[in-house]
Specification:
mainly alpha, 0% strand, rod-shaped
């Protein structure tokens, strides 16, 4: 009888430990799922930023190419210095 009682007690303890471990694993699984969702949101946000930076890089490259053209030099000379070609006629509004 004593052997039987010890066996039941041992099985009960083992079952209790297994249930506790199962609870801990389940709890961590839920926490990891939340972390995974947050990480996915962060990845999506970073991908959007990467795309914006690639577009900005293209704009900067286009500007760099434009600044090396004759048209850019003419535009700056007209805008900043007020220069015009010799045969060009400029109409200014009367005040």
């Amino acid at each position: 009888m004593r052997q039987r009682r010890k066996k039941r007690t041992g099985i009960g303890v083992i079952a209790f430990v297994v249930l506790i471990l199962f609870g801990i694993v389940s709890y961590r699984r839920i926490g990891l799922a939340e972390e995974k969702e947050k990480a996915a949101i962060t990845i999506e946000r970073l991908n959007v930023q990467i795309q914006e930076q690639k577009e900005r890089e293209i704009d900067i490259e286009n500007l760099r190419k434009y600044t090396k053209t004759k048209q850019y030099i003419e535009d700056i000379a007209r805008e900043k210095l007020g220069l015009v070609y010799e045969d060009e006629i400029i109409f200014e509004p009367k005040e």
